[in-house]
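Retro notes
What went well: the complex prediction finally ran end to end.
Inputs used:
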Amino acid sequence: MFQFKLVLLGDSSVGKSSIVYRFVKNSFDEFRESTIGAAFLSQTIKVKESDDGEETVIKFEIWDTAGQERYKSLAPMYYRNANAALVVYDVTQQDSLVKAQSWVNELKNKVGDDDLVICLVGNKVDLCDEDAEDNKRAVGTEEARSYANEQNLLFYEVSAKTGLNVQQIFQSIGEKLFETKSEEIAAAKNRQIGSSNDHVNVQLQRASTNDPTSCCF
Amino acid sequence: MGIEQLRLSVKLGGASGDGGGERISGQRVGQPRKSPSAPSFHDKMYASRNTSEPVLPNHVPALNSSNSADNASLNDADASLSVINLYGDEVESRRADDGALQSPEEVLSDDPGLSSTPFGQRSSNSATDGPDLDRYGFKKQNNFITEKEYNRWWRDYSQYCVRRKHKWKLLLEKSGFPIDNDSPYRFPPRSEKLKRYVRKGIPAEWRGNAWWHFARGQEKLNKNKGVYDTLLSKMDELIRKKKVVADLDIIERDLNRTFPDNMHFQREAFQTEEPPMIKSLRRVLVAFSLYNPKIGYCQSMNFLAGLLLLFMDEERTFWMLVIITSKYLPGVHNVNLEGVNVDQGVLMLCVKEYLPEFWRFIVPFQNQTGSDSSPNSSPSLGKNEFLYKLPPITLCTASWFMSCFVGVLPVESTLRVWDCLFYEESNFLFKACLAILKLSEQELIKARSLKLLRHHSISDGGDYNKREIQLNQDETEMEIFQVIQTFPKRMLNPNDMFDKVIFKKRIPLNRLDQDEVDRCRKYVAAQRLKYKNYHELIGTSNRTNESGLNGSIINSGDRDDTKHSGLGSEENADAAAFDFNDDRTASDFVNNALSSEVYGFKRGLSGVHWNNSIKEKVRQMRKRKVSSNDQLMKN
């Protein structure tokens, strides 16, 4: 089993918690209480190893954060040592994409790790009906997609309400992490030779954890 | 006040006569009875309010149906009953005789001994009522507590409440304070006895008045007569002129995310009108953001205001919010959230002092981080390091402070903490935190032994080395976090916290008085500021990995805010005034200064067992402090 730390970032009320609840509990509430501080959840998925078709379990440790601007000062604690980040915006709010872009910049500047998988997620597509008169979409799919491509991000438009694409976000992040870390994993496994147990827990968090700065903010 | 009392008395007069009176008053009020004490206040506010919103119509029948579309039993009158009846005063038990609206559990005798109320019957009776609600309109069931568990607990706790209320009545009568219409507004002077009564819970219907009294709300209001109304007109004017009302947008986003499982805050799909509660909430929060732009609106204040609104009118809610954010939680909601960081530092000091066993869960590798001596790593900051680099558990406990436990503890437990908060001031928040952490110890031990078990199997016979343990430190932290995050949500019985920890002499929490907390806050704020200045002085070039620090301290800027959190300008100047020649001297010096200043808790007061080793430690600490001061002087 592999463990990855994943953090959700994005403007207030874009649906970060709702995406997590859809993924972890497969449930949705129209009105979810605003997140104060942070919440921690975990969920596992399976990914196929490429050659032999064997399945590997991946456990996501998910940090769900409060979206309001002033909580931003706490964010470094959440994304420290993260393997993946979901940067969420609301497809019906143009501003929220701007906020998302600033999160992407912050992650790239502050974390500065090429292995960090960032996924741009446009939520609330259930409110968009391209043919309807009251189509609430404010951020075009192509606009966001081209930004994501340019920045080398994964990109999904999802609906936490209907569940559309939510599982896929985590699946593709899991696969990408699995792929990029596979060498590291192999090395880690080799180190464990001598242990008779095949099911080795491998920690993939990057920073050395005996670094005294690593546990704190 | 006089008018409110009168109104209340008129209303209750009607209620004591027949159900019809209550229904009429309900219609007049135009909203469901929200709480033990609030509704008539809301009525008053709406009547005089000239807002940009359509003024609340006098009749809002739609609200009756919130949460019970197809059921007439949850109408205004019934909603009010669900609040009052469980306390079983005479009026209500007589009402029960008319039998039209009550379900069996609503019959409560005044005599605590006779108050047998098979509460369970309500759930079966009200199976058609839709989701079953507690006496404040919250859903009994949530992700952590089943309705069955709730009912089982409530059967006993409701009787406890009846007994406590009986005692309160005797106390007030003996002290010669009137209990007009079950709404006393004067309370006996402060005393150990009263404190004990408060700790055992203020009767729910009296809470609004009691909180207002103990927090000295009226004094604040008297000094600021008309301010709330002025703020509301300002808000109206801004909106009318289509000017930007700062924070209005983010307030709007949170309105429907405040107690979505409480019937008073809900809007069903078929309702066009917003619930009055939401309108009140908007006005209070916007008015506050105009009143105190330095705080503006901070997520979590919606929960504070929301809970207050269940117990008092808008204007009082507003002033209570002012009092909470300035007196009880200074700086906690400020833009840089430094106040909340300071309080987390204080909490960590308290854990270390009062719950040493628990402390070892939080800082399991204290020796490594505490006395790190390798020259290239972060300079050792001695025993105080956790004040600047707060342990991850504080990500969780920070929200305990910001919302004063709303959404952290189940509502009855939250209210018991609030009772004490307003009577005893903010030191009680720390006591409550410590009590929760203490109670969660068992869970942590369980989680830990599971983990060790897993380790054992992985390492195939105990061959795992130190490195592996260290690698798993993050994992450990997550486990602690998960336990601490979930544990309080299941603390259905408020008495656990009190009987098992707070009232226990073994854990001398009573020593943690307000003076101690104030001193401790000042100390932590000063230490954090020194640390911040220290980093600015030696530069961040070789410390770019300290993202946490960059974010939470250095970027947080704004000295005024730090001052706000109890820090005198003296320390400020003190730390900034040094002129360092080079980095090394600077870091050595500051290290010395910081690590030598160890906070000393008050000890040796009554009921404390003196211990020679503690005595010796204190003596050494004092000595060190003196010598470091000398050093400071020399430099």
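What we learned: The CA atoms of residues 177 and 186 of chain B lie 6 Å apart.
What to try next: split runs per interface for comparison.
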